Amino acid sequence: MIEVIEYDDRSSSEEAVRAVERLAVQDKVDFILPPWGTGFNLAIAPLMDKFGYPQLAVTAVTDMAPKFVQRWKKSFWFLGGGSDYSKALAEILGSAHKSGQINNKVAVVSVADGFGIDLIKSARPAFKEAGLELVFDKTYPLGTKDFNSLLTEAKTSGADTFVAFSYPPGTFGMAKQSKVLGFNPKVMYLGVGVGFPVFTKIMGPDVAGVMSLGGVDPNSQDFKDYAARHTAATTNSPDFWASSVTYASLQTLQQAIERVGLDRDAVAKEISTGEFDTILGKIKLEDNQLRKLWWTGQWQDGSFAAVSPNSRDGASSVVIPKPEWSQ
């Protein structure tokens, strides 16, 4: 039997840090699973390193991962960096512009937090290199609920493409408010939350064509089987980006423990160097990072299908322009 001790971080990084310290010092647990989000994983990383726990930073997107693995040698980064996602998007947009599907103007908004900062920082040079012009570039504070002014400015910017590097509340808010404003760009790329099943409930048929980070191979039997188990266990479907990667990270931890026992140093070494059978296929980390990932997804025919890298088996073809909003 496995004893699970759980604390609510109350969506506060300070609470997450206190919980990690309590788990390590007071509860003396064998392993600590990570919180959700880039900022939270960065907040707990020094403590996880101090107490010698492997950290599966699986819902953290950061270009600093190569440096972090040198600083925190038991940290493992499973979701890539901002530049991976922004370069993939820039490549899609650049190709669409060259083929005459869209103009070269892009409007971007980004949340003023770790995730948004990382993405926009890498997107600016990536868009420029792809021959795209950033005609609107604004940040917004975490917790913003009214996006009407930002969306109105983006609508009048002349851009065929709207990009938001956003967390779920902002993603959902901008999607709904865009429909109200009649803002229907040829390309709409929103941030975290687009791949969540709840997004389809929020947008209905208007999910079609919306792009974001991640995606899945909709024909993967491993993903279908995992989704069925997830739904049976929780009554909710998994998301179409980090859920399967998170599950794969737990399979990695399980197999490492089965091979070397509960010694945390040995487990960390095994995760760093071993190969593991997961729902993503066989994975082997490179410098404590998972690099074989889907960078861009798009809602197509009821599934959030991976469209980049388009050279990978299982990739779908991107659809541009997206359909008009329904009335």
UniProtKB/TrEMBL annotation:
Superkingdom of this protein's organism: Bacteria
Record domain Leucine-binding protein: where: 2-302
Keyword Isomerase: no
Keywords: Amino-acid transport, Signal, Transport
Annotated region (Disordered), positions in chain: 306-327
SUPFAM superfamilies: Periplasmic binding protein-like I (SSF53822)
PANTHER family: LEUCINE-SPECIFIC-BINDING PROTEIN, PERIPLASMIC BINDING PROTEIN OF ABC TRANSPORTER FOR NATURAL AMINO ACIDS
Stated family: Belongs to the leucine-binding protein family.
Protein name in UniProt: Twin-arginine translocation pathway signal protein
Lineage: Bacteria, Pseudomonadati, Pseudomonadota, Alphaproteobacteria, Sneathiellales
